[in-house]
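Structure, all two chains, one model.
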Amino acid sequence: MTDLPTMQEDALQRIEGASDAGALEALRIEYLGKQGSISALMKTLGKMSPEERQEQAPKIQSARTAVADAIAARKEAFEAEELERKLASETLDLTLPSPTAPRGSVHPVSQVMDELAEIFADLGFSVATGPEIEDDWHNFTALNMAETHPARAMHDTFYCSAEGANEAPDTAANSAPNTRRMLLRTHTSPVQIRSMKEQGAPIRIIAPGRVYRSDSDATHTPMFHQIEGLVVDKGIHLGHLKWTLETFLKAFFERDDIVLRLRPSYFPFTEPSVEVDVGWEDVNGRKVLGGDGDAPGHGWMELLGSGMVNARVLEFAGLDPDEWQGFAFGVGVDRLAMLKYGMDDLRVFFDGDQRWLDHYGFSPFDQPTLSAGVGAGA
Amino acid sequence: MKFSLEWLKYFLDTDASVADIAAALNRIGHEVEGIEDPAEKLQGFRVARVLTASPHPDADKLQVLTVDTGEGDPLQVVCGAPNARAGMKGVLGLPGAVVPANGMELRKSAIRGVESNGMMCSVRELELGDEQDGIIELPEDAPVGMGMAEYHEASPVFDVAITPNRPDCMGVMGIARDLAAAGLGTFRPIEISDIAAKGDCPVEIRIDDPEGCPAFYGRVIRGVKNGSSPEWMQRRLIAAGQRPISALVDATNYLMLAFGRPAHVYDLAKLSGAMVARHAGDGETFDALNEKTYTLDSTMTVIADDKGVHDIAGIMGGAHSGASEETTDVLLEIAYFDPERIGVTGRKLGLASDARTRFERGVDPEFLDDGLAILTSLITKTCGGEPTEAVRAGTPPAEAKSLTFDPSLTARLGGLDVANDEQRAILESLDFKVSDDWVVTCPPRRHDIEGPADLVEEVVRIHGIDNVASTPLPRRPGVALPTATPMQAMERKLRRAAAARGLNEAITWSFLPAAEAGYFADGAELWVLENPISEDMKVMRPSLIPGLLSAAKRNADRGADGARLFEIGRRYFRGADGASDEKPTLGVVLSGEKMQRGWAHGKAQPFDAYDAKAEAVALLEAAGAPVANLMVMGEAGDQFHPGQSATLRLGPKNVLARFGALHPNTCRAFDVDGPVMAAEIFLDAIPAKKSGGGFARAAYAPPALQAVTRDFAFLVPADLAAGDLVKAVRGADKKAVVDARVFDVFAGQGVPEGKKSVAVEVILQPGDKSFTDEEIKAISDRVVGNAAKQGAELRG
């Protein structure tokens, strides 16, 4: 019988040299199995005298532990190798494209309308709406443009036939002065009349929506978007109008240096009437709003029409002009969008070109908020 | 309206610069749309004398000139004008000069081998007139070497937009008056020279339509010679964009552009009998001087003689009786026409003219005699002739309007503190008369002054509207409350929900071609435009699908793989009361590839009707509709595939949405490759959320016990709707069965003919105690029993 240290030494060497898990298992059986050589040594302990046993037992036990630990360690190494091999075989080419969810978008006009609603809500304005197919009373007469008013002709109005799609239009009926003539609203101003009639005063509203003019070129489309603002209260004057416009434009363009230039003008529904220019600066060939339009390298851009609500309009809307005063303004939403977000062709707005929508549209999560800024960064 | 600085200075004594005048015009409400300095265009052109002229050696029609430019040696210039000859004076363009008419830069060059050092110019090339017969011939006294800009007294031209309320500024005089009030100089009152009249006017003038024509003045001038108008007048007319025609016509145009006063000159030889302002006859025809024939009616006012109409009052004269080269005796007409009448007539006839623009806005009713005198002397000075006394019929409505003005209104309405003295001075500078107790009398030419607000505007615009100080709008106390209506809030939410689902928001035209609108009309009465911009934009849309479908087609035509578009907007119907019935709607179109071909899944995948359903249901849920209660029913419409479309309803009548595959015929009608899926959600049909609950949700605690899942495989009739089976299964125990989900549908091998296999996973949620085996068996039995009522049998 070989001596114990030699056997242990030999066993450890063989374990170290085991080529695979099977060979290792064979060694485990050879040494530690029921018939194994170390197990056999363990059995000899029973036949020993107590003294001998006291001397031999720790040695045999120690050899057994050493061999068992070596087998366990070797086994773990084999398993680790095995896992590594398996994982290596599972390698993916992660440069391949992953499945993507389609990216939707919000149209710039909607985005800007949401921005405006947010800004004006903070100033106490609610959003009002009205029909897009209006009668001429709301679109013209109540806005102090009587039947024969020359300003009517400047509106390039789309008129609706008196009859439906399948019947011949009766033009005589249309031109009769007393029939209610239907048309596509040429501005959002009729919403002023409807809102004042419904809600009375005081009132603070904005009215965004589609409007229509019979006009078509690079900067005019037969359909476009306007937003109307109306404040009627006691003691409202031109100064309030100026402040409101300044405040809204500063909030909208998120810059404090917006400078307005007021010019007297004429709209039948306001008196006095004011055309509003905004100062811009030439930044790399692009007109960027901000700064004094009279400064070198700057200029003025006509942006919106406004004024104090004409006393006649208040009367038409059922309010006493001696008691109430107010201002109104109208501005192109598409134009605001173009100025803020840098588009230069209006016609593409209404084409539904997926490429354009992908590029200029907004993430649904660009919800305008006052705290995070109403504008959505590029 | 356009006018030159030189013309303005005729009425305004000022040293102000062009820039200062432009700034002042903008400040007081006359928007300057452009300033053009013709001197810039005439840079490099100068007066020159032709010294010699000899034929070009190699070209029949060309001559070789030597030209004295006033400095240095004479220049050799090749010229093709037949009137070029030695001794004449003309205008030479030097190398570097740019020809105004065509933008061509002149260069030293060789023309057919002969050196040419410039170009002798025609009137048209320099945009000094229309004439193009040869080169300009200047008078003998033209100083050789003088710049053409200086010689021509080129003066900067302002282009100003006059607002429709200010017809008094549709003449240079009115603008000068406003500028003087704004402190830009002194207004020069016009001097009306006495007319040396001989004898009474031989033509009777009469008004038979005093409403349409309250006043009609005139006079005859005999023995005129109608040649060219004087150069100073032509220069001013050209600056104003008015082509010189003949001395007589130019004189009336000059009167209109300088004084805002239209007038008319008739050839007396063409008239017969009295000139009468009367109603036109119904159907009466008239040949206007624009060479068109108009059919008139009895609402229109005309000027006519015994034989017929010579003038559509205040709008346009006749071809027959206008001044011509042969004219020797003329009748002048200065009238006051009713603005409204002019507007109505002009619109009816679709006839615009400078005269109409002024008459329909209102001319100065006090300027008839002065206008007649000015026109008379303009004509006699140029064309000679002997004027008769004036004749007058009627009187213009020149009563001055008076109103009481409270100067404190300027601060209250205009937001501008202007001292009373200054307000008074401003109004007086504009010819208003202000009494000590602030009764303000308006000049009759100011038709626009209706009330005190108009006077505030006068004060504010002259004082400077830009001086108005910003005044914060009073803020309502407390925090801002939500202002959006439920519909607005729903639309905003839906928009972002749709975008988050991968749809692109489009905005398409509200109008459609009639055929496309008709295709989606479903018998509804639609709005048709009387004057569409094109036939493609004629009928207001009854559906959002056609616009989106056309957009999808455009995308496909551009090579896009697919389009997923949505739009939130209105559909338009004629309401029973004659008003517009506009229905807020969300439309979706899914076309082309849902998924491009890919390395992982292979071929490209098209959209199917379930994709349309997914959008409809998800968006209805986002809109707050009770989607669990929706019924899937038929009748999506003829535009849809009959077997692959449905409506989603709450109750049998209330249709919230329709969705599905579009009918192949629809795709064909829109020329788009199918299949295309579409959905439409009718936002006004979605019931409002029951309010009153506030923000608190219904009480809920996640159940402590785990749910139990049981699978059932049924054999059902092939035409049984899976939805009906699921509904039956759910009904087995409304409390315990919290969900039932179809996870397999199969027909074919192993399934009998006329049947299909539907497998349903049923989720049972125990309450406080776990289910006993008996309880689960009882529920299962009821599931099987309910299913059996639908014709389902449990598969073995």
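Chain B has 20 helices and 41 strands.
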